[in-house]
Amino acid sequence: MNAMQPTVCIVDDDDSVRRALARVLGAHRYHTSCFDSAKRFLDNVELENSPICAVVDLQMPDMDGIALQQTLSQRVPVVILTGHADVSKAVQAMQAGAIDFLEKPVQDGLLLAAVERACERAREQFARKAELRVLRQKIERLT
Asked: What are the chain's domains?
């Protein structure tokens, strides 16, 4: 896998949804990693060593998708998926920085477009972090 190809983390408490999303994304050459809860995602994902983005269910038992998005605080581009859409939740997600807010069952084309935007943002963020690390190392050598 290309180091700049983000991993798409799928966070959904429904196993069939996780498998379906992974199948669609995998068929389009996205590398995926699946988690059945926000807690498992936060406990197991490495945020600093490679670019990642996330496709996150809005309603999960331990932490909802918007709370997870806020916990990540712009470090990870997030696409929110829900089977229970309402305007206030969509507005809340978008104001918190979501790449997109999609209803289940999601059309493949809409999912792929949103994931590509999330991956592009993940690549940009990762490249900026790498540049900052190089600059910090140069500054440390000067001092």
From this structure: 7-142 (3.40.50.2300)
